[in-house]
TrEMBL record:
The protein, known as: Trypsin-like serine peptidase
Residue numbers spanned by region Disordered: 1-36
Any Pfam family: Trypsin_2
Enzyme class name: hydrolase
Keywords of the record: Hydrolase
Amino acid sequence: MSAGSTYERLLGESQSGGLESADGGGAPSPPDPERLITQLSDEISRLEEHLGADADPEARNLLIQGAQDALQEVADQGADARLDMEDVARLEAVVHSDGTRPVLFVEDDFFDVTAPAAANWAASLSRIQPELRTVCRAVGRVNDPQSLLGYQGTAWAIDDGVVVTNYHVLEAISTHPSRPDGSFGGELKPGVAVDFGAEVGGGPADRVFRIRRVLGVGRAGAPECAHPTVPRVNFDGLDLAVLELEPVRGRPFPTPVQVARGDDAATQGALASRGRSVYVVGFPGSAASTTPDVFAELFAGVVGVKRLTPGVLTEGRGEVDRDERSWIISHDASTLGGSSGSLVVDLEAEGRKVLGLHFAGVPDRVNWAHGLEGATPELAAVIPGW
């Protein structure tokens, strides 16, 4: 496969050391493999110190050597570089460490602002610290005791005791799932729950709530509207499920997040626009990942922990090809399998409104989310008083 967006990030943003710019400033210079590998090695060493654990030596050597080879291929061949999926994963690790699109571990409902990889984003994220903490507390891991890794995706609090996730995550935690006429048919597996802790080092243990029932699901897309190249993706459908949680005496539910609405007179449903800075919070790295989770390869203990990844919207509502309902947006924040159900949050203005529900992507190409301004009527129909 070609180097794709990873190549563009390395040659464009990482060379300039900043975020997106409207003017590319001419042809980008080739990446400096030595400098980028040094940054990657330094980031691994910092994580070893921070996590109090040594990276697997064999995995570390494979990552460094693989990244060196992939970077040299990009430096020599440019956009014509040919890379396999492991090469792309190694380049993504470089991007994560050089500050372009970092993957930041959530700890105590925030992140380590001193991490070198966070440098380009630390000021913007710190500016909204109270709002960001509220968002991080509202994001939970969908636990499934019967699954290989013990979880299936991400959910987040949209109302008191009510969470939103993807329909395909609900399918994974159910038996005989179906959604005839927009209603849910099937039964939840025993023991499925949402864990709003699940941070590096364990996080708070008193934030787990069992899933009580399904309040509603998004409509299935018309079969003829199925994406021609990406399995199980249909922009005519709404990959969404709303779940009610079981209360626990003495344990408050997380504060719900604010959601951008299509009927907001102030924004007129146009907040999720191209180029807007965003951040994604969720639990990347499930067994369904098509791109390897390099951090999990190095540190076994980081599988299924909460992470924050900043980026920008690459397409706003109405701009995504084949989206006739104008309820799809795309973003370039780093994601993996397991990120399904993550929220995409506005980083500008108040920095706290949820713009989208991440549901799918093509590795190193595009990440798709349902723009919730476009899905406001569907949400209002299943959430009492919303």
